[in-house]
Structure prediction request, 196 residues.
Amino acid sequence: MTDIFEALAHPVRRAVLKKLRAGPMSAGDLADAFPVTKPTMSRHFAALKDSGLIRAERIGTTIRYRLNVSVTEDAVAAVMGLLGAGKDDEDGENSHER
Amino acid sequence: MTDIFEALAHPVRRAVLKKLRAGPMSAGDLADAFPVTKPTMSRHFAALKDSGLIRAERIGTTIRYRLNVSVTEDAVAAVMGLLGAGKDDEDGENSHER
DNA sequence: ACGCTAATTAGCGTCAATGCTAAATAATAG
DNA sequence: CTATTATTTAGCATTGACGCTAATTAGCGT
Prediction:
């Protein structure tokens, strides 16, 4: 489980999350929407999946990625914690399932 | 003004923001709170300042850093945008090279 | 089994981030 | 002006991220 913030640090990965807001999408369709090669996109997917922000489901030969809302909510909470809204125990590398 | 998310990507920088929630702090005091050298901390401060997340004010020989709440709020809004709460125009940037 | 499509992994080059030590700047005190 | 303290900048090494092409795995259909 790598860092959520690290996953959010790359503009392409954030754009992938944005696209997935509309609903699940296949790796190929997702990759076609960006000006980088599929292998490169695959590594971005891996980073997002590793952080827990997205999930993968194999359908046939295709892999369908979808947003993992609960983890995205954690990211929101963490950033809000940096603001000062919370008590004092934010950014605590919580555990998530995949 | 570099990317806010890039600034948030490093654990030390997030911890600095967390510390600054309690109020402004000098570069030296801030640096003493982390297990890295002052020059290294200085570069973390520069990254945070460059992203707009913190602001610097020279007091005498010391420099006082403080949280820039409005930009932190922007970060929260951006992450919430990734979730899907907003309409569809978040994370307004389409550049992907560095 | 063979071929086709979808996606990932392997291998490589390049460039930026991170850390250090040493030197430079900024401001104050004497 | 010199000394001292606070902080940053310069220079260097190491590591990791990112992108590519080529090769590999996975599943389906014939």
